[in-house]
Amino acid sequence: MPREIDRVEVQRLMEAGAQVVEVLPPAEFEEEHLPGAISLPLRRIESQARDRLDATKPVIVYCFDSA
């Protein structure tokens, strides 16, 4: 179930093995992303998420935008 979480919860989930997904296009992912993040552009998330993510682990989806 999607929900918004704060920084403390993100850190806790990451320490517990959560998968971190950056949804910006690949070129922007290469510029800057969280360590260990998976590049899964928003336009492809529905078609690729099941193949690329482990359904048994929490998933944190974020979008870094410097604008």
Ordered list of secondary-structure elements with their pairings:
Layout: H1 7-15, E1 19-22, H2 26-31, E2 38-39, H3 45-52, E3 59-62
Parallel strand pairs: 1-2, 1-3
Description of the molecule:
With 67 residues, the protein is α/β, with parallel strands linked by helices. It has one domain (7-62). The protein is built from three helices and three strands; from the N terminus they run αβαβαβ. The protein has helices at residues 7-15, 26-31, 45-52; strands at 19-22, 38-39, 59-62. The chain has a three-stranded parallel beta sheet with strand order 2-1-3, with helices on one face. α2 links the parallel β1 (19-22) and β2 (38-39).
Number of helices: 3
Q: CA-to-CA gap between the ends?
A: 28 Å
Largest sheet geometry: 3 strands, parallel
What overall geometry do the principal axes of the alpha carbons give? Answer: globular
| Poorly predicted spans | none
Please estimate the helix content: 25-40%
Q: Mean pLDDT, rounded to whole units?
A: 89
* Domain module count: 1
Quantity of strands, as a count: 3
Class based on secondary structure composition and strand pairing:
alpha/beta
Instruction: Describe the strand arrangement of the main beta sheet, using strand numbers.
Output: 2-1-3
Strand/helix succession: HEHEHE
Please give a handful of descriptors for the protein shown:
67 residues; alpha/beta; three-stranded parallel sheet; 3 helices; 34% helix
Would you summarize the structure shown here?
34% of the residues lie in helices and 15% in strands. The chain has 67 residues and is α/β, with parallel strands linked by helices. The protein has one domain.
